[in-house]
Amino acid sequence: MRVLLVTWGTTGDALPYAGLGTRLRVAGVMVTVATSERLAPVFRRHGMPVHVLPLAEHEESALAPDRFDRRQSPARLRRRKRNAQDMAQVIARGVIGAVAQGVDVILAHPLTHPLCAVIARGTGTRCVGVYTAAPAMLLPRLSAGSRMPAHAYRIAETLARAAISPLYAPALSWTMRELGVRRTGTRTVVGILRGERVLHGFSRGLLPLGSVLPGGHTCAGYWWPVRDPGWRPDTRLTDFLDSGAAPVFFGFGSVAPGDARQLGATIRTAVRELGLRAVVQAGWQGLDVRGDDILTIGECPHEWLFPRMAALVHHAGPGTVGAGLRAGVPAVPAPLALDQPFWARRMTALGLAPMSLDARSLTATTLAGALSATLRDETYRDRCVALSKAIAAEDGTARVLTALAP
């Protein structure tokens, strides 16, 4: 079985796919990855060959720290739209080239799925979507409570896909012409992906009660990242962990919620007010928080670090949420954009966190209050531990292997 795994995004976005690809290889699947040069090392270090998608000149704009600013000029929005359309064209050309080398199944990240679905039809290849997040999750009101109307998820999925269709339109038209795919009924992302097989890399237990996924969609369970061969924790970190009580983790991944100095001061003040110790992950924002009971670190595998924490404060990205739940550690979610508000609301609706904070308006007072509530009430940890046991019983890779079977 020859599989082409097509993915793109931040490093945190790529890590679950590296874990999935590694475990598929162990099961005997031949996995090749199509991704950007920036992400290629994430996969190569685990022995996966990479077909490079030349996206370097587009990534600076697509992943700029200010990409989530609410106030952007019409001219900037137009530039970002053109950049996204150009990226889609580059991805389409690259995937067609990779498929030509011999592929049985394409596994497609949600950002690449519309293109991969059309390419699969034009080349006689199968395609399966592998999502760690879904377009419907960009609509956070979907998760406002513990229940929702049965078909709300399907409606939200349709609306979200309709909204992003213009970003794919030029590349889809070119791909259809290039491969001779008939355009009837397949002119939009909604039409192209209707009925497509999609596996979601998270636990079904995290979705609102009563939710019904679109046709062909299934929750597979998490695809956990794999630790880099030869990785060892920094002695500064191990010494800090051994020198006192379990600290609180602070990390915001690839998002930048405001000025780094101001955020660092907020963290420092809240930690001192509560008499806590803290580990702060610098992230893309370059946080550098210093103090006798505060240690700032670089990259560190969450599956190693989180079980050693008393609590977590993070941006509620899907991978970070999953890692925290896997470790059974309570968290204070502070989302910024995209699907982060969805996961933050799910955490509070499930009673895994006392509240969610707005990353854009964090203050030392609100942060200290949320942390105090989290640490004071053992109910949150108990619920996280219970969910971690349920998650551990799921095998996300096995579901993918089943989908790959002819």
Keywords for this structure?
UDP_glucos_trans, seven-stranded parallel beta sheet, 13% strand, Glycosyltransferase, Glycosyltransferase_28, EryCIII-like_C, 2 domains, Rossmann fold, five-stranded parallel beta sheet, globular, 406 residues, transferase
**Number of E-type strands:** 12
| Sheet with the most strands: spatial strand order | 3-2-1-4-5-6-7
Order of helices and strands: EHEHEHHEHEHHEEHEHEEHEHEHHHH
Q: What is the CATH class designation of the largest domain?
A: Alpha Beta
- End-to-end gap: 9 Å
DSSP strand content: 5-15%
Q: Which radius of gyration do the C-alpha atoms yield?
A: 21 Å
CATH superfamily of the largest domain: Glycogen Phosphorylase B
CATH topology of the largest domain: Rossmann fold
Give the biggest beta sheet. 7 strands, parallel
Number of domains: 2
Structural class: alpha/beta
**Which outline best applies?**
globular
Calculate the mean pLDDT score and round it.
Answer: 89
Estimate percent helicity: 40-55%
Give the number of helices. Answer: 15
Q: What is the CATH architecture annotation of the largest domain?
A: 3-Layer(aba) Sandwich
As residue ranges, the low-confidence spans are none
Protein name: Glycosyltransferase
Organism: Streptantibioticus parmotrematis
Pfam family, one: EryCIII-like_C
Keywords: Transferase
Question: SSE layout and pairings?
Answer:
Layout: E1 2-6, H1 11-26, E2 30-36, H2 40-44, E3 50-53, H3 56-62, H4 74-99, E4 105-108, H5 113-123, E5 126-131, H6 152-179, H7 189-193, E6 198-200, E7 217-219, H8 235-242, E8 248-251, H9 260-274, E9 278-281, E10 294-297, H10 302-305, E11 311-314, H11 318-327, E12 331-333, H12 340-349, H13 364-376, H14 378-392, H15 396-404
Parallel strand pairs: 1-2, 1-4, 2-3, 4-5, 5-6, 6-7, 8-9, 8-11, 9-10, 11-12
Helix pairs in contact: 4-5, 4-6, 5-6, 9-13, 11-14
Pfam family, one: EryCIII-like_C
Keywords: Transferase
Domain Erythromycin biosynthesis protein CIII-like C-terminal: 292-400
